Amino acid sequence: MSAFDDLPVDREFVSDPRVISADDVAAFATLTGDTFAIHLDDEAAARSGYERRIAHGMLVLSCSIGLAMQMDLVNEALIAFAGIDKLRFTAPVFIGDAIRVKKRVTEKRPIDASRGLLTFDTKVVNQHAAIVVAYVDRYLLRR
Questions:
Q1: What is the rounded CA–CA span in Å between residue 21 and residue 73?
Q2: Which is it for strands 78-89 and 131-142: parallel, antiparallel or unpaired?
Q3: How far apart, in whole angstroms, are the C-alpha atoms of residue 23 and residue 38?
Q4: CA contacts within 13 A on the Cβ side of 88
Q5: 4-21+56-142 maps to which CATH number?
Q6: What is the pLDDT of residue 1?
């Protein structure tokens, strides 16, 4: 199921899990230049009140987009990623945590006969089912 007209409002979809590794965090720090110590040093993380190093919030967000694409909900019809609203980082993601993405279709807005805007309420959860990131995302799709 991937076409704009085939995705029902209020339908929820759940991704496979993805483990956030130390290599992921190191690569993201190198790629972005965000070398804040709580991501790279256990002692610095402990001094900041975390039990151990935490993943960058933007790394977790980026991985959530990848997990969503792997669900193949919109890939065939995708024209463009249209944006994110109400982004919240609600709990830390530790190295070794497994995240999943839960997406619920909240709105379908036809733009014209060939395109529509699809909106999801998205939650990223860890292996304990705790929400770690939440946002509303929109995709421009072919109809």
A1: 26
A2: antiparallel
A3: 15
A4: 12
A5: 3.10.129.10
A6: 45
> How many whole angstroms separate alpha carbon 46 and alpha carbon 101?
28
Place of tokens 């304990």: 128
- Both tokens of 139, joined, read 């995709």
Burial 66-95 (b: 16+ CB within 10 A, else e): ebbeeeebbeebbeeeeeeeeeebeebbbb
Per-residue pLDDT of the chain (143 residues; tens, 9 = 90+): 456 888 899 999 999 999 999 999 999 999 999 999 999 999 999 999 999 999 999 999 999 999 999 999 888 899 999 999 999 999 999 999 999 999 999 999 999 999 999 999 999 999 999 999 999 999 999 98
Q: How many residues does the chain have?
A: 143
Grouping H, G, I as helix, E, B as strand and the rest as coil, residue 27 is helix
Of the candidates 124, 16, 139, 45, the one whose C-alpha atom is nearest the C-alpha of residue 84 is 139
pTM for the predicted model, two decimal places: 0.93
Cα–Cα nearest to 62, from 91, 32, 40, 41: 32
Q: Where are the domains of the chain?
A: 4-21+56-142
